[in-house]
Write a structure and sequence with these properties.
One of its GO terms (cellular component) is outer membrane-bounded periplasmic space. This is GUN4 domain-containing protein. InterPro entries: ARM-type_fold, GUN4-like, GUN4-like_sf, GUN4_N. This protein has 14 helices and 2 strands, in the order αααααααααααααββα. The chain has about 240 residues and is mainly alpha-helical. It folds into 2 domains: about 80 residues, Serine Threonine Protein Phosphatase 5, Tetratricopeptide repeat (Alpha Horseshoe); about 140 residues, Arc Repressor Mutant, subunit A (Orthogonal Bundle), CATH 1.10.10. Helix 3 packs across helix 4 and helix 7 packs antiparallel against helix 8. The longest helix is centred in the middle third of the chain and has 16 residues.
Length: about 240
């Protein structure tokens, strides 16, 4: 049901929405951000103010959702605002290896999760080195040696731009909650149904309707060793 305040769009209602967004719960913010994005009378201004107020705080998926709403809008003012204040997005694109994570960020901001999944593997191969780039997949020993900074950057991009649903850390938390049982994990995150593995790419779900932890695929087709190395990585204890 559409909120009548949003339909009317009066200045009084706009101020009420602004207060709700700033002070509201995550659930309220989740609902308000897409509504504000399509509100002609000041909705984008509220989102810009919201992002500026939060820029010195720890980045969460709420920031990602607000950023995405502005990024995907047709407003020249919103685009100028992002270029001025968030030229590299809301997730710091840190790398110990000089890897450019902007292509991955763009795909995640625009919710092209299938292409983002492929790009994730590509970037991880770049981190691993020339041999991994050439073969286009990873050895688990290469994952063991991943810089903490790079793994956290990749994971944070997925977390922040998926409403907290996707990312290696999400998969790891589910795995731990299931007593480190791999078979239960595959079923829980939608990689296996009964005795049948989910077939790539058409049986995977490439949007936010997917089960929590469904993406990224973590080189799943090559067995458990790569994802086990990911879950054992010291990045999650930092």
């Amino acid at each position: 049901m559409t909120d009548p305040m949003i339909v009317s769009g009066s200045s009084c209602d706009i101020e009420s929405l602004r207060r709700q967004l700033i002070a509201g719960s995550i659930q309220v913010q989740q609902q308000l951000i897409p509504q504000l994005a399509v509100l002609d009378n000041g909705g984008l201004d509220i989102l810009m103010e919201f992002l500026l107020q939060r820029r010195d705080s720890t980045v969460t998926w709420v920031d990602g959702k607000a950023y995405q709403a502005l990024y995907n809008s047709d407003s020249p003012q919103a685009k100028e605002f992002l270029q001025t204040h968030f030229p590299e997005g809301v997730v710091p694109l840190k790398s110990e290896c000089g890897i450019d994570y902007r292509p991955l960020q763009t795909l995640l901001v625009t919710q092209d999760f299938q292409a983002a999944d492929r790009m994730t593997l590509q970037k991880m191969c770049e981190v691993a080195g020339a041999e991994a780039v050439k073969r286009k997949w990873l050895y688990f020993t290469e994952v063991d040696n991943f810089p903490i900074t790079d793994l956290q950057t990749i994971n944070n991009l997925w977390l922040v731009h998926s409403e907290g649903k996707f990312g290696f850390s999400v998969q790891r938390e589910i795995w731990l909650s299931l007593g480190k049982n791999w078979d239960n994990l595959w079923a829980k995150i939608g990689w296996k149904k009964g005795n049948n593995w989910t077939r790539y790419p058409n049986e995977f779900i490439w949007d936010l309707s997917a089960p929590k932890g469904h993406l990224p695929l973590s080189n799943q087709l090559r067995g458990v060793r790569v994802i086990a190395s990911l879950f054992a990585h010291p990045a999650w204890s930092k």
